[in-house]
Amino acid sequence: MDHEDGCGISVARINFKKNNFPDAHRDEGHTFHILEKGTVDLEIDFKQYRICAPSVIYMHPAQVHRIIHFEDITICSLSVKDENLDPDSIRLLEDITPTEPLVLTAEKSNTLFNVFEICLNFSVQKNNKLHDVLLRHSCNTVVAFVISQFLDQHKPEAALSRSETITKAFRRLLEKNHRMTKSPGEYADQLHISTAYLNECVKNTTGVPVSRHIRDRIILEAKRRLYHTDRSVKEIAFELGFDDYPYFSRLFKRATGMSALSFRNKNRD
What we know:
By secondary structure, the chain is α+β, with helices and mostly antiparallel strands. About 50% of the residues lie in helices and about 20% in strands. The strands form two sheets. It has a five-stranded antiparallel β-sheet with strand order 1-7-2-5-8, with helices on one face. Helix 2 runs antiparallel to helix 3 (about 130-150), helix 7 packs across helix 9 (about 245-255) and helix 7 packs across helix 10.
């Protein structure tokens, strides 16, 4: 998705006959694809999905993705950079990331396509004196409606248990701080609880301990960079807060069963 005119928003409705997209990549903005017709095989963060219309796919700017296969699809796409999104929407998108593609009911898809059509119409009204304002607000309406559909799959805040609330707060911190904060104790301190209690809450909610979540988030980011960039393993280790490059290499191999270079080579074949 190219953000034309430097406005940080890209809107398009396109029919594609065959796959001519680039290999694995990241988008600059928060990207929403509404599949109107057809079926797509898509990989997001090394998980593969088969998506059938009508569906909506949300991809966070940090996520690496690639299209594996499709034939004759129609898709409505919107990409928006942070500066054009409502702060509440940014917070909610961070909370639901990562999220799987969502199949829409006929009623919900009709609503979404209608809202998207308004956004698309405003996007081409370049001579309108309020073009940027209309485009930004209509885009935020599309985004808010999409978020509402994903949130329907989650428990409301008021229904969360104490353990679930703490786990959600931990995951939010982990997403922001995984490059530099790597011990359960540091996260517990930020949440003003004991390490043992944090671990108990997270394990009760997810089935795995805090240390595993920290390791898995680091490994996911390493995989993204190995796949998406040409930086060396040593450079990636340093970017992820590891001064001890051999330790990072051992951690990656224990977590994935292969070396970082083997992972890169395997996924680029």
